Amino acid sequence: MQISILLTTVAKKSDARRLATTALQQRAAACIQIISGIESHYLWKGKKTTSREYLVMAKTTAGRSKSLEKLWQKIHPYDCPELITLSGRAATAYARWVVASVSS
Fold first, then answer.
1. What residues have CB less than 8 Å from 91, skipping those under 6 apart?
2. DSSP state of 83
3. Rounded distance, CA 61 to CA 3, Å?
């Protein structure tokens, strides 16, 4: 079975937790993992930038991934947030749990 994972990064743990809590409350995701200690290197407005960030990974269904992306776009603290969706096969039991968790 297929599931989707939406990835984003934020600078503050409180922002990561807000994204996670809101997604779960809206049943837009079944599980969110917050990974600390990410060091990001990127070009922003023509300058090389380095920052410490939190990686936020949300597991959802293909059908709910767009609504989760829109939700996070609305409440994300960054002007241009990274919102990347990955889709792939998951173990049947896990995928069923994801589907049940995001179903109304």
1. none
2. -
3. 5
Confirm if 33 and 25 have CB atoms less than 8 A apart.
no
Average pLDDT for 84-96: 96
Beta bridge partners of 35: 55
73 forms bridges with which residues in the sheet?
none
CA–CA gap between residue 77 and residue 102 (Å, rounded): 24
**Strand-pair partners of 53:** 38
The mean pLDDT of 25-50, rounded to a whole number, is 96
- Per-residue pLDDT at 87: 96
- Rama region for 38: left / alpha / beta (φ>0; ψ in -120 to 50; rest): beta
CA dihedral 82, 88, 94, 64 (to 10 degrees): 50
104 confidence band (pLDDT: 50, 70, 90)? low
> For residue range 3-17, what is the model confidence (pLDDT) as tens digits?
999 999 999 999 999
d(CA 87, CA 73): 19
